[in-house]
Amino acid sequence: MAPPNTNKRCKGVQIFRPFVFGSTARLFDPVTNPKPAGTPDDHTHSWTVFVKGVDDVDITYWCKKVTFKLHDSIPNPTRIIENVQPGTPFQVSETGWGEFEIVIKIYYVPEASEKPQTLYHHLRLHPYGTDAEKEEMRTKGEVISWSYEEQLFNEPNEQFFDLLTSPVDRKAAGGKGGKGKGTKLMRGGMVGSTGERTALIPVGSRPGQPYSRETEKKEMRRMGEAKAKVDEMVKEAQRQYMDAERELAALRQG
Amino acid sequence: MTSHDVRDMLDLPQEGTPRPTKKQKLNGPRPVLKGLAREVQNLGGDNPIAIVPEVTVFKKRRFATRKPAAKWDARPFKNSARQDGLILRHWRRKDDKPAAPTVDGEGEEKKVEEIEDSTFAKYNVQVNIPDYTDEEYNLRLQNQEWTKHETDYLFSLCREYDLRFPVIWDRYEYEPPIPQPSEGDAAENAGALIVPPKTRTVEDMKARYYSVAATVMALRKPPIKMNSAEFNLHEVMLNFNPAQETARKKFAETAFHRTKDEAAEEQSLLLELKRIMARADKLGEERRELYARLEAPPSNGNIAPYTTSQGLAQLVSQLASADRSKKHRKSLMGGETMSPATGPNTSTQQPYDRRESSVRESISGPSGLNNKKGSSQNPTERRQLTEEEERIYGVSRHDRIGTSGPAFRQEKILKPLQSKSAVQQQKITNVLNELGIPYSASTRLIMPTAEVGEGFDALLHSINNLLDARKLVDKLQGEIATAKAVRAERERVERERGEGGAEVKREEGVGIAESRKRSASVMSAASDRSGKRLKK
């Protein structure tokens, strides 16, 4: 259980942390992806659903555990993943034949004393999207359905604020709140030393790491172009409106 | 050993008895006196000599380690930092092994070639002064205060003195170019155009230099692509504030001239301030406790047990024990006692609390009952983050945040879209599809970052504008249609007027009135419909 929330929230402050969640599925193939022994005959794909940091950075300092609620037909459908190595994803690997919605619940570290939040992810086994995208997935042999997401912490409490805005060493030194908590903080500090605890995302994309400032900029550009187009259309509509108004005035007078 | 020697000297017979081993042991750790020949020392026998002769230690002669004196020669060297190629000589140790015997002429030549560079040449570091073209200057670097000529002059000085601004300031003697007087109006020009050059302070020069350098830097490489060192440099140069710099210097100057008494006074004032803060702190604590007591929910419990003195004594002891346990426990007290009764009160106390916690860090005097606990609760006061840090840690400040707690950006961005009615959503989706952006309420943004969110918001806003504009156009179109119909009607009536009489005329009037009414009702119907849609 989270400790009682005696901490004050930092008013008007919002902190975000980027992360990636989604699934990767592969068709069973005798050569490249052989069926493991004991898999039911009707299973056609192996897949993995995960939650991880962008560029595989550590997220364990704010995300304590993740539960994946799989389809009820799968044995033991609620999978609880915790105590993962920092920098490695929270993930579940399974085999199956059908697509379904996975409910991902993210639990935060006790310092945050926040309620868990829910994400929904549609498991994709078959190529989707435009024809080109489908073709690419087919040739690659992997169906990737990943989503970039930003975890917002609105008005975090002060302790959590400190945790989120401190580099690792400070954290370990400052962990002296209470007895039980102290040890946990120390451990957290040591564990986190594998990566930087920042909200930065990589500047450029790499294969397997599609989310970066570059991608963001591309998206921004697309948005900007679309906006320009829409603005153009608005002007056009306004022109039409003026024309119509004139026409109407002419009609009324005549 | 020694007694043995003595016997030997005095020709005493060798004693058959072996010397006890103890003696040997004694011999071992005997202090060895320096500067005394062994023979003399041995004369003392088993007793160590008590007198230590004064030894004059001369410089030890070097025996075997003696090497032939090192050879030095005056070798020419050059300094690559100099342009004039001056060659000086300095003493250098000669290499141990003599150069391989070669033909004389060749050896000479080689030596000449191998003129070494001065070891100090590496300290001649050139500062990287940005350069700008005329075009760039005209586009971005124009300034009211500075002419291009003067800026050029400043930069040349910067280059010459490696950005040492005090030196630059010292040598700054700018003379504006004298305009070439043309024949006719030479006299006029001389009177009007020659303005005495402004006196520049160090800050003026710095400000100009930094602004130009930062602009040029940003021109060469957009800030978003800079690495963190470059970005920091750019930030620093961009944020140079001459007024602040002057104030800082003035302050430093006055601080430097401060007398001892003044410094002491300041110190004592600071102490006083700390004390006042601490007192305010304590007072706040007490007041809060009082409030908590005052606004505690009235108890409906039976007071009968406390009417007797015995009962009262029991109550007192109970309270005392509760107080003690409260002190031991981490102070839940603040939250517990305040939360049930004092709704608005907590919020008014908030800013006060925050300051308290930060003050408590620096003052160690015990105050209030949860002093120590309180400080451990917030192990560090809320730190002030720099802008750079805020960027790194993704911290942003808002005037109003809807709800506190965790959320996802994607949802937040798409909320305005998803909260719309299905019809409206469909319309927006249609527009987006028209634009070739396959967004809809069910699909997601690829990168839901803050920036993209803003972009999406702007896009949505434009789309709403578009939809509104289109609606208006549609409405007008409808009105035009009715107006056309009215006109057609009127024309028909006019055509019929030839046959008809006053009756028709009246009809016409009714027709027009009716059509007016209808157009008005069309308008209201449209707005009604839109209102309903929104409500849906």
Automatic annotation (TrEMBL), chain A:
Residues 171-227 are annotated as: Disordered. It is found in: Nucleus. Keywords: Coiled coil, Nucleus, Transcription, Transcription regulation. InterPro entries: YEAST_sf (IPR038704), YEATS (IPR005033), YEATS_dom (IPR055129). The keyword Transcription applies. Its main location: nucleus. It comes from Glarea lozoyensis (strain ATCC 20868 / MF5171). The keyword Translocase does not apply. GO terms for cellular component: chromosome, telomeric region; NuA4 histone acetyltransferase complex; Swr1 complex. Residues 9-167 form the YEATS domain. GO terms for biological process: DNA repair; regulation of DNA-templated transcription; subtelomeric heterochromatin formation. It holds the Pfam family YEATS. Residues 227-254 form a coiled coil. Residues 213-227 have a biased composition (Basic and acidic residues). This is Protein AF-9 homolog.
UniProtKB/TrEMBL annotation, chain B:
Residues 1-10, 489-517 have a biased composition (Basic and acidic residues). One of its GO terms (biological process) is DNA repair. InterPro entries: DAMP1_SANT-like, Swc4/Dmap1. GO terms for molecular function: transcription corepressor activity. Residues 119-216 form the DAMP1 SANT/Myb-like domain. Keywords: Chromatin regulator, Nucleus, Transcription, Transcription regulation. Residues 339-351, 360-379 have a biased composition (Polar residues). It is found in: Nucleus. Its main location: nucleus. Residues 1-31, 93-112, 318-407, 489-536 are annotated as: Disordered. GO terms for cellular component: NuA4 histone acetyltransferase complex; Swr1 complex. Belongs to the SWC4 family. This is SWR1-complex protein 4. It comes from Glarea lozoyensis (strain ATCC 20868 / MF5171).
